[in-house]
Write a structure and sequence with these properties.
The structure holds two protein chains of two kinds.
Chain A: E1 5-6, H1 13-25, H2 29-33, H3 39-68, H4 88-94, H5 97-128, H6 135-147, H7 150-160, H8 167-176, H9 192-217, H10 221-229, H11 234-262, H12 266-271, H13 283-292, H14 297-327
Helix pairs in contact in A: 3-14, 4-14, 5-9, 5-11, 6-9, 9-11, 11-14, 13-14
Chain B: H1 15-42, H2 47-50, H3 64-70, E1 71-75, H4 78-83, H5 90-97, E2 100-105, H6 108-139, H7 145-154, H8 160-174, H9 180-204, H10 208-216, H11 221-232, H12 234-250, H13 253-258, H14 266-269, E3 274-275, E4 278-279, H15 281-302, H16 306-310, E5 315-316
Antiparallel strand pairs in B: 1-2, 3-4
Classes of the chains: A mainly alpha, B mainly alpha.
Chain lengths: ~325, ~325
């Protein structure tokens, strides 16, 4: 029988367990007796390189970005004098209508991709958990899209979405009778946001499905057997057992998809590049435009820091909620 | 589950339920495979077939897309082409039939090689460093372990573009911009967070009594690590390596911002493949097909470990 466990406890979660393990692990007499390096020096020799690399390539640039966010530095003019402008960059970002527009676009994208992926992903997981013949094989087939490169596949979806020659328009027209050249998924202001939501859903529903499936398999059979003895209807069992017990897993999937889609860049960049106009310009694309096209390095750094703080803050609040649900 | 209660078991769905569930799942799977099937088909179409209306499902397959992917071509007069000797290869023949001659190799193969060097290099480094760090965190009392581990995980939450600006500046200062070494270091740093988390989970599952027994038998801790722990962790290390490889292979944001020429990988290159008068979709499809095949193989190899990898070890099976 598959044994499935959910290990996230909290943000310090994963971590308390680590500490416990370390306490249990801390070798006593055995270690002290042995020859060679002491455990302490081995521990440090093993951990330091990783920490050093993360400091150099993750933390140092982040600190640098924080510093730059208080300056008027422009990366395309490295020799110009750098002035400290205090909080002005942050002020400008927070008062910039374009940036709020981008945040709304991002919110729309994140909301609908999560809704669609959770509904379809959970349904699929529920159906796969009926354990029909060949379910393992078809599960693997379903998983394929999420392993592929969003940029390379997103680029090809551009071809599928072509108004006259694209397969997508052709299939839609085949089933609905709407002429295939009468609508442009990527070129129309009303359809483009849905075009990117559709590709994201195609790609990442398997991800949510896989986590939901783990959730469903973590529910022990005896609970359903007990419910049956109590003559609970199938409907009742679904809402009182299946959903509540799978909820922490569903929430975990939503967390991971939320973080990923909040910083979505590659797929949207290749599909629409933010267009038409700025209808699909999600936060990362605005950031890229400000940083690498307008070269407003200071201002874009301020925006980047605000985004990071937002993801980090929201994720932490969410993990707290997740733990409450888990402890129920 | 005993066979006696299977007939009435509440946990064993009825045959009809199974059939309906299976049908829906299979239809979903087949529909989601259409785009991938279409990429594969398009890679064997001629450029006119690829943009015909209605889209062609039946067509004469040709290797033109693959030829165009790997070569650059120049248009020539029919007289000039006549004057050449017999075609030296299939691609030569196809190119000539379009009144063109092969001018030289395209950039696809160098970009593909870059992808391989950078993906394998960074995977090796990330798994190497990750294995050591994971063992350290799993077996020893490390001061501030909680904070360090959470810090390692949180580096994954940063939008790549957010750190791309200072990394761009830093690489420019160090002479690492547009170099394979720079990209390897960058992807290693991104992947090592995943590697430490996953590997620590795998190592926590190896009973520490094994090493203690080995050490009582006279092994040093390092020997015990090498001869007892590592062999036990092989599956976990292999799975972690494949996850790192897939990330590095698929990555686009850093690659497009930090590489432009010599170190450019395939993902930023493939969308720039163009033919005469617009996108050369068969060539793009051919490049995409070749690029996706390794990942398909890995996905099948990984399917048992997939869940753990995509949730940072939060869900274990």
């Amino acid at each position: 029988m598959d044994q499935v466990t959910l290990v996230t406890d909290t943000n310090s979660s994963f971590v308390d367990k680590a500490a416990d393990a370390a306490v249990r692990a801390t070798p006593t007499t055995v270690a002290n007796r042995v020859r060679g390096m002491s455990d302490r020096s081995i521990a440090w020799a093993f951990i330091t390189p990783t920490i050093a690399l993360l400091l150099a390539i993750n933390i140092f640039p982040l600190l640098w970005a924080i510093y730059l966010s208080f300056t008027n530095f422009r990366a395309n003019r490295p020799n110009a004098a750098i002035d400290n402008v205090g909080l002005r960059n942050y002020e400008r970002v927070l008062n910039d209508a374009d940036i709020w527009q981008a945040m709304q676009t991002t919110a729309h994208f994140v909301f609908w991709t999560i809704v669609l992926q959770t509904v379809i992903g959970f349904t699929l997981a529920y159906l796969i958990d009926r354990k029909f013949r060949g379910h393992a094989f078809w599960t693997t087939v379903i998983l394929i899209p999420m392993m592929l490169s969003p940029a390379v596949v997103g680029n090809f979806w551009r071809f599928l979405y072509q108004p006259q020659i694209g397969l997508f328009n052709y299939i839609v027209s085949f089933f609905t009778g709407i002429p295939p050249s009468s609508f442009e998924m990527l070129g129309s202001v009303s359809l483009a946001p849905w075009a990117i939501i559709l590709v994201d859903t195609w790609m990442w529903t398997p991800y949510v499905m896989l986590i939901c499936l783990a959730g469903l398999r973590s529910i022990p059979d005896y609970i359903y057997e007990a419910a049956e003895v109590d003559r609970a209807s199938g409907w009742r069992q679904f809402w009182s057992i299946t959903i509540p017990m799978a909820l922490p897993f569903i929430m975990l999937a939503v967390l991971f998809r939320g973080i990923e889609n909040f910083k979505m860049f590659d797929m949207v960049m290749l599909l629409t590049g933010g267009g038409p106009g700025s209808t699909t310009e999600v936060a990362s694309i605005t950031l890229k435009r400000e940083a690498f096209e307008s070269w407003l390095t200071g201002r874009s750094s301020a925006f980047a820091i605000l985004l990071f703080v937002a993801v980090f803050g929201l994720a932490n609040i969410y993990v707290k909620a997740l733990n409450k649900v888990k402890q129920r | 589950m005993s066979s006696a209660n299977t007939a009435h078991s509440v946990v064993e769905p009825s045959a009809t339920t199974k059939r309906v569930a299976g049908a829906i799942v299979i239809i979903y799977a087949l529909v989601t495979m259409i785009p991938l099937g279409w990429i594969f088909l398009t890679s064997f179409k001629s450029p006119p077939d690829s943009i015909s209306y209605p889209p062609k499902i039946v067509f004469t397959p040709t290797l033109e897309g693959y030829c165009n992917l790997f070569t650059t071509r120049t248009r020539q007069t029919p007289e000039y082409i006549e004057s050449l000797g017999p075609p030296t290869s299939t691609c030569d023949e196809i190119t000539r039939s379009r009144n063109m001659v092969i001018a030289g190799p395209s950039n696809y193969w160098p970009r593909f090689q870059n992808s391989m060097i950078i993906a394998f290099g960074s995977t090796f480094l990330a798994v190497f460093l990750g294995t050591l760090a994971a063992y350290g965190f799993s077996r020893f009392r490390v001061p501030l372990a909680d904070d360090l581990l959470f810090f390692i995980l949180s580096t994954r939450m940063m939008p790549p573009i957010a750190v791309a600006i200072p990394i761009y500046l830093m690489f420019r200062g160090l002479g690492l911009s547009d170099t394979a070494l720079g990209m390897i270091l960058l992807y290693t740093a991104v992947n090592v967070s995943l590697a430490v988390w996953l590997l620590k989970g795998f190592m926590d599952e190896i009973p520490r009594e094994y090493e203690e027994a080995a050490m009582i038998d006279g092994y040093t801790r390092l020997q015990a690590f090498r001869k007892v722990v590592l062999p036990q962790a092989t599956t976990g290390i292999a799975a972690t390596a494949i996850f790192c490889l897939i990330f590095a292979w698929n990555e686009y944001a850093f690659a497009v911002l930090l590489t432009s020429g010599t170190a450019q990988t395939a993902p930023p290159f493939i969308p720039t493949i163009i033919g005469e008068g617009g996108m050369d979709w068969p060539a793009v499809a051919a490049g995409t097909t070749i690029f996706l095949v390794p990942i398909l193989v890995f996905t099948i190899l990984l399917r048992k470990q997939l869940l753990r990898g995509i949730t940072f070890g939060a869900v274990r099976k």
